[in-house]
Amino acid sequence: MATIAPEDLQALKDAVHRLLGDQSGEAQVRATMDTASGYDPALWKQLAEMGVVGLVVDEEFGGGGAGPVELEAVMEEAGAALLCSPLLASGVLAAELLTALGDRAAATRLLPGIAAGTSIATVALTGERGLWTADGVDLTAEVVGGGWAVNGAARYVIHGQNADVLLALARAPDGLAVFEVDPKASGVEIEALPAFDHTLRLAAVRFTGAAGRRLDAAGPVWPAVQQAIDLALVALAGEQAGGARRCLEFTVDYAKNRIQFGRAIGSFQAIKHMAADLLLESESAISAARNAAARLAEGAPDAPAAISLAAFACADAFSQTTATSIQMHGGIAFTWTHPAHLYLRRARADAQLFGTPAVHRERYVQQLGG
Amino acid sequence: MPDTADLATISDGQLREEVAAWLKANWDPSYREGGAGQAAASGPRSAWLAKVVEARWAAPRWPVAWYGRGLSDAQGRIVEREFARVGAPGTGQDRTNLWANTLLARGTEALKARLVPALLRGEVGMCLLYSEPGAGSDLAGIRTRADRDGDHFVVNGQKVWTSSAATADYGMLIARTDWDVPKHKGISFFFCPMKQPGVEVRPLRQITDESHFNEVFLTDAIVPAENQLGDMGDGWGVLQTALAYERSVMGEGARGPRSGVAEASGEEPLIALARETGALADPLIRQSIAQVIAWKKLNALNTARAKADLAQGTSSPVMSLGKLAMSRILHEEARLRTAILGAGSLLEGPDYPRAEDANFLTLNAYFTSIGGGTDQIQRNIIGERVLGLPKEPEVDRDIPFRQVRGG
C-alpha cells in the first residue's frame, strides 16, 4: 500500500476534522443514533466524496490507495467525534477482505461501489460465541444443485441491517471460504440487535440455504480474513485513541471550570491525579495505534505483535478514560444529556469487537515467543 | 388504652405480650395492600397506619406527648420484632421516618402539630431539596435563596437529584438566607410546599435510561414562616440532624444487577455466570471472581463488626468505609461481568438479561461512587475525620458567601 506525504496526511486529517466538527457534533450524533439505520446518509456521502470511505481501496477500483497510517489518522477523528457510520464494516473490514482474497472479478464487481459509498458491505464473521477467530465461525456451506448454499447463524455483524452486500465466512467441505450473499435473497434473515452502544449497529444474520457466490482465494482463506481483521484492529485502535483523547479533553476542561469549595475542582489533587493518569493512558493509546499502523504499513515482521499491543492498550485506555471521566464529572455525567456516557458506551463496544483485551494480551505474549 | 406512662417501666416480657396481644386483636394481613413507600390518605395500608399511630406503636421511643411511649431503644427493638413477626408495617418510625424525626427535633410547634401525625400515618409525600447544579460535593455552596417577606419566605433557585418530587407535598429545603456571612452560617431549613405555581418539577433522565430523579425549579415559591426548622442561619445544623437520620436507615441499599436473574441452583451468581459462558476455567476470571466475592464478604464482616461496636456504645471507623468499599465492589463486579460475557456484553435490553446486568451495573455503579458524596470526597472525609489527617485548605470557609467564587 502506498503511503502519502506527511503534509497530505495532515491535510486529510484536517479535512475530516472539519467535516465531522460540522456534521458529527453531539446533537447530530444523538439524532443519528436514534434512527433505525444508525448513520447519516448525507454525511456518509460526504465522507465518500472526500475519499474517506474508499481510503484503503486500491486506486484501480476507485479508492484512495492509502494504507493503515492514513486510515488510523482518519479513525482518530472518527473516534473523537463518535462518528456513526458503517465505515469500519464496509470501507475497512469488507474492503480489505476483498483485497486480501485476491478474487479480481469480485474486487472489480464490489470494490468500486464500496469505495464510492453507494454500496455498503459487511462481513458475517463470528457466531454466537463472538470470537472473531477461525474457530468462532459457525456458518457452513454446501453445494446444492450446482451452486453454494450457506447455512447457520452469524452474530455481531456490524451494520448488517444496512448491508447491500454480505460477505459470509463459512465452512465448506474443503475448508473455510468466503461467500458473497445478497442480503435480500431468500434464506437470509437479518435481525437488528439492540446494541448497548447506541452509535453502533449490530445484527444477527440467519442463513437458511441462502444462495452464495463463492469467492476465489489465492491461498488459504483464514490469513486473508486475519489481514482484514488486522486492518480493522488498526482502525479501531485509532478510533479508541481519538475517542480517549477527546474524552480527556472535555473532562479536563470541566475540571478547570467547575467550581466547588470556592476553587476549580481540578485544583484538588484527587482530580488532578486522575487526569494525569488518563493523559498517560490516552497518549500511550495514540502511540500504540500509530505504531501498529506504521508497522503494518511497512509490512514489518513484528506488525502482528504491534497490532495486538494496540488492540488491548487502546481498548483499555478508552475504557478507563471514559469510565474515569464520569467519576471526575460527578452527578452531571450521570445524566443522559451529558455526552460522557456516549463515549463510555462506545469504549465498551470497541473493547469487544474483533476480540477482547484478554484475547489480545494472550496473542501478544504468544507473538513475543511466550 | 393502657396507662402509657407506666409502659416504660414494664419488663421486656410484659411489653412483648402487650404488643403481641394488640397485634393479635388488630392486625389483618389484608391491611398490607396498597403501595408501601407511597403517600396515601386512604386505603387499607393507610387505615392500618392510622391504627398504629393511635395505639402509640408508630414511634414508641418518642415522648408520650408526641404519639410515643417513651420506650428505650432496646424496648423499641422488641416492638419492632413483634411487628416483624406478623409482617405488620408501621412501627419503628422513631428510627426510620426521616421526615417525622427531623420535624419533631427541630420544627415549630405549629408545624409539628399539623404534620407529625400525618407523616407517621404516611399521608404526606416528601422529598429532599438539597443538591443544586452548582452545589454537589460542596453542598454548603448552595445558591437557592429564601427572602423573608412578612409572614412567609420567597424562594428562588434550582434543586437537582430530587426523587419523588412530582408526588411530594413538601420538600425539605435548604436555602441561603444570609449572603454576608460564611457559607455554612447563612443557610436556613424549611418544609417547602411542593404543590404551588412557583415549583416546577422536571424528570431527569439518567445514563441508565431510568428517571428516578428530578430537577426542581423554584421561582418565587412561597414558604410560610412557620415551616422553618431551626433558627435563621441554623439550617446547616438542622441538615446534619436530617442527614444523620438518613444515614442510619440507608445501610446496605446499593442496587446490584437490574434484571435480578436468580440462580436456581443457589450458586454464587458470578460463578454461575462464568460456568454458563464457559469462562469458569479461565484462571484470570477465577482470580477476579474470588476478589469480588472476597470484597463483598469483607465489607459484610466490617459492617457487622461496626454494628456490634455501635451496639456497645463505641463508634467504629469501619462505618465510614462501607460506601467506599461498596463503590469498589460494584465497579469491579461490572468489569468482571463484562469480562465473563465477552462479546455478549455488546447488547442490552430485556432479551439479553446477562448483558443488561453487566451494562446496567457498569452505569449504575456511579450512583454509589458519585451519589451521596463522591469517592474522592469520601476519601477526604475518612482521611480527615477518621485518621485525623490535616484538612485541605479551605479558601471559602471564613469569608462572606457573597465573595465566594461560584461556577
Task: Write a structural description.
The complex is a heterodimer of chains A (370) and B (407). Chain A is of the alpha+beta class and 370 residues long. Chain A has three domains: 111 residues, Butyryl-Coa Dehydrogenase, subunit A, domain 1 (Orthogonal Bundle), CATH 1.10.540.10; 98 residues, Butyryl-CoA Dehydrogenase, subunit A, domain 2; 146 residues, Butyryl-CoA Dehydrogenase, subunit A, domain 3, CATH 1.20.140. Chain A is 52% helix and 16% strand. Chain A is built from eleven helices and nine strands. In chain A, the strands form two sheets. In chain A, strands 1, 2, 3, 4, 5, 6 and 7 form a seven-stranded mixed sheet that branches. A two-stranded antiparallel ribbon of chain A has the order 8-9. In chain A, a hairpin with an 8-residue loop joins strand 6 and strand 7. The model of chain A has no long low-confidence stretch (mean pLDDT 97). Chain B is an alpha+beta fold. Chain B has three domains: 93 residues, no CATH class; 124 residues, Butyryl-CoA Dehydrogenase, subunit A, domain 2; 107 residues, no CATH class. Chain B contains 13 helices and eight strands. In chain B, the strands form two sheets. A four-stranded mixed sheet of chain B has the order 1-4-5-8. Chain B has a four-stranded antiparallel sheet with strand order 2-3-7-6, with no helix packed on it. In chain B, a hairpin with a 2-residue loop joins strand 2 and strand 3. The mean pLDDT of chain B is 91. Classes of the chains: A alpha+beta (370), B alpha+beta (407). At the A-B interface, strand 8, strand 9, helix 9 and helix 10 of A face helix 11, helix 12 and helix 13 of B.
